């Protein structure tokens, strides 16, 4: 029972971080970045490949490379597509996602690569009379800390203020002196670091890294930002958290019918969207203009 | 004076816009299809993709609302048509189908009838889900339709009562010749063209261009979107059914993410505003893929043999998509319908 609750919270936290990364980029440029999945994947690959180095060193390498890749995406591709409309950017990001998957396949091979990352994390400890894995506690701690840092960054710093302003109304934010290119690049860099952290969390649980490693979590996080409310960063994180918690609880309590967990999750998503089209955190009558 | 924005899509019936694409499809299918047996199969698959891209064009292209859910209707169409036409003997004895409902196992209908049923089922399900889904807009609509695809995939992947689950359904009869899928694609093309020039097509494009002005002119946005969604769902069902009769099998993975995004990419690369764009996009993506495949296999193309390492093909296809969008974000055709090349200097 304790393990089930911890699992739910840690999965929720992981999805919240992924959703926050997606939501940051969506906020500044209305881009649904499918290639976020490949940022998570590259982080996991690097952690596996550099497993001989001390954990902190290999994580820093992963974070730097992932952030650089995120910024490179923006500079080489998304910057040129700005203003073409969300549908086209979404398809382009999907193309980029497939492209990177194939490049990974060429570099790392199609078969999963694995290594025991932070093996001490798979041990168990006793909490309130029940034994739980260290990794689930660590995940909860990491996500809470990162969400607090991200919350501080977004609520209390000038960069965060600019990001929030841009998420609400990008044009007006520019008129008020927000430097769009720099801000968008910063959003991509932060989203890259968040992806690296998500990559670390998932690779500890499941060290079998293959080219499509990050796709599943990205799609679910994307579902999360939509049901949470795409126009607010807090809503994105909350939506991601909810998706993780719901999925984890469904997996625990459906028993043999757990193969249908995704069906129930998606049906729930459909119902939430029909009741609140703009997401849970939105005002009732707010509608996106196509 | 500021130039008025060039709005993509057709307004009036034009003989050339309809018969140009018909001629090109027929000529290309026959010329390429009859040149070799392996190309014949490629052409048949291409025709299925084309019907699917047309289905997407009707809804996504005209309304501007993204849909990832059409894969679900294609999946449904494939399962309906595949299960209806597979021989009773195979359905009762195949190892992958021991759980299949007896009433499904004992039924067998004619190929043409099953195609019709698949289209009707696709249309009915799209019509029913559209009643709810079409209230949504923008990204919420995209994710909601994706949820539909997710439910369909999850259901068919795990359920062994209404299909083979994650395994392949064997023994689905194949099309006897090229002309059946070709004819079906042409019928779909004509239907889509007629819908696009009808008042439904035109009002739908009006809602795409301005969803505040359109209702002010008396257009019921939700109503026209529902109609278009149901119609395109029927076409997607047909496309899925056709695909199963070209492949000779039904497998749930064939209609999931890869299929959805491949067909959406074809539409966007060609230009989502027109059926000419749908055709050009399908042709372009299929031919790039085919040429690269032949290079990978070391075959000579026009007497020229370029060796490509394995795996390079997939990279090239994805790169083509990205580059095509960077080069021309509104698609190769810019959303225009077919016209004879005009070599005279343009007056505007």
TrEMBL record, chain A:
GO terms of molecular function: L-isoleucine transmembrane transporter activity; L-leucine transmembrane transporter activity; L-phenylalanine transmembrane transporter activity; L-valine transmembrane transporter activity
Transmembrane segments: 12-35, 55-76, 88-107, 127-154, 183-204, 210-230, 237-254, 260-279
UniProt KW keywords: Amino-acid transport, Cell inner membrane, Cell membrane, Membrane, Transmembrane, Transmembrane helix, Transport
GO biological process, one term: L-alanine transport
Compartments (UniProt record): Cell membrane
Membrane-topology annotation of the record: Multi-pass membrane protein
Pfam families the UniProt entry points to: BPD_transp_2
One term under GO cellular component: plasma membrane
Family: Belongs to the binding-protein-dependent transport system permease family. LivHM subfamily.
Protein name: Unannotated protein
Annotated source species: freshwater metagenome
């Amino acid at each position: 029972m304790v393990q089930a609750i911890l699992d739910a919270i840690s999965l929720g936290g992981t999805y919240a971080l992924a959703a926050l990364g997606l939501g940051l980029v969506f906020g500044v440029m209305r881009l649904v970045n499918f290639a976020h999945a490949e940022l998570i994947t590259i982080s996991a690959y690097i952690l596996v490949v550099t497993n001989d180095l001390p954990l902190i060193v290999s994580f820093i390498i992963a974070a730097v490379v992932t952030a650089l890749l995120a910024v490179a995406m923006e500079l080489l591709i998304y910057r040129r597509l700005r203003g073409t409309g969300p549908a086209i950017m979404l398809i382009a990001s999907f193309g980029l996602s497939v492209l990177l998957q194939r490049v990974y396949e060429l570099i790392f091979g199609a078969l999963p690569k694995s290594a025991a990352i932070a093996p001490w994390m798979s041990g168990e400890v006793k909490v309130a009379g029940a034994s739980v894995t260290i990794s689930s506690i660590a995940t909860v701690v990491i996500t809470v800390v990162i969400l607090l840092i991200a919350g501080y960054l977004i609520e209390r710093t000038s960069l965060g203020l600019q990001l929030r302003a841009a998420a609400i109304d990008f044009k007006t934010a520019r008129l008020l002196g927000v430097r769009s290119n720099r801000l968008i690049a910063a959003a991509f860099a932060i989203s890259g670091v968040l992806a690296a952290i998500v990559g670390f969390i998932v690779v500890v649980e499941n060290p079998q890294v293959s080219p499509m490693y990050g796709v599943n979590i990205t799609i679910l996080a994307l579902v999360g930002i939509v049901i949470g409310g795409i126009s607010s960063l807090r809503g994105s994180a909350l939506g991601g958290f909810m998706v993780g918690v719901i999925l984890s609880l469904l997996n625990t309590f459906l028993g043999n019918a757990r193969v249908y967990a995704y069906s129930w999750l998606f049906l729930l998503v459909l119902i939430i969207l029909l009741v609140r089209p703009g997401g849970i955190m939105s005002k009732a009558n707010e509608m996106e203009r196509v | 004076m500021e130039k008025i924005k060039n709005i993509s899509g057709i307004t009036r019936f034009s003989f050339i816009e309809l018969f140009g694409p018909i001629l090109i499809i027929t000529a290309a299918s026959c010329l390429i299809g009859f040149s070799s047996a392996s190309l014949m199969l490629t052409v048949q698959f291409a025709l299925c993709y084309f019907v699917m891209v047309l289905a997407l064009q009707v809804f996504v292209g005209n309304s501007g609302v993204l849909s990832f859910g059409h894969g679900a209707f294609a999946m449904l169409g494939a399962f309906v048509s595949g299960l209806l036409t597979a021989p009773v003997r195979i359905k009762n004895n195949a190892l992958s189908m021991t759980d299949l409902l007896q009433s499904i196992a004992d039924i067998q209908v004619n190929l043409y009838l099953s195609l019709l049923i698949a289209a009707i089922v696709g249309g009915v399900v799209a019509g029913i889900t559209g009643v709810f889904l079409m209230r949504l807009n923008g990204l919420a609509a995209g994710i909601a339709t994706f949820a539909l695809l997710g439910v369909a995939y999850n259901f068919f992947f795990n359920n062994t009562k209404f299909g083979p689950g994650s395994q392949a359904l064997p023994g689905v009869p194949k099309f006897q010749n090229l002309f059946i899928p070709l004819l079906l694609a042409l019928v779909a093309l004509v239907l889509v063209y007629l819908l696009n020039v009808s008042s439904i097509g035109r009002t739908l494009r009006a809602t795409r261009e301005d969803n505040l002005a359109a209702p002010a002119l008396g257009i019921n946005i939700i109503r026209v979107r529902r109609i278009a969604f149901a119609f395109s769902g029927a076409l997607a069902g047909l496309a899925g059914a056709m695909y199963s009769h070209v492949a000779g099998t039904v497998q749930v993975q064939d209609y999931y993410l890869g299929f959805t995004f491949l067909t959406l990419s074809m539409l966007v690369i060609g230009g989502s505003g027109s059926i000419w764009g749908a055709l050009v996009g399908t042709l372009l993506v299929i031919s790039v893929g085919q040429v690269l495949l032949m290079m990978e296999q070391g075959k000579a193309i026009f007497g020229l043999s370029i060796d490509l390492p394995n795996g390079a093909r997939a990279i090239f296809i994805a790169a083509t998509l990205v580059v095509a969008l960077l080069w021309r974000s509104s698609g190769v055709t810019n959303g225009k319908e077919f016209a004879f090349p005009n070599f005279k200097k343009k007056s505007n």
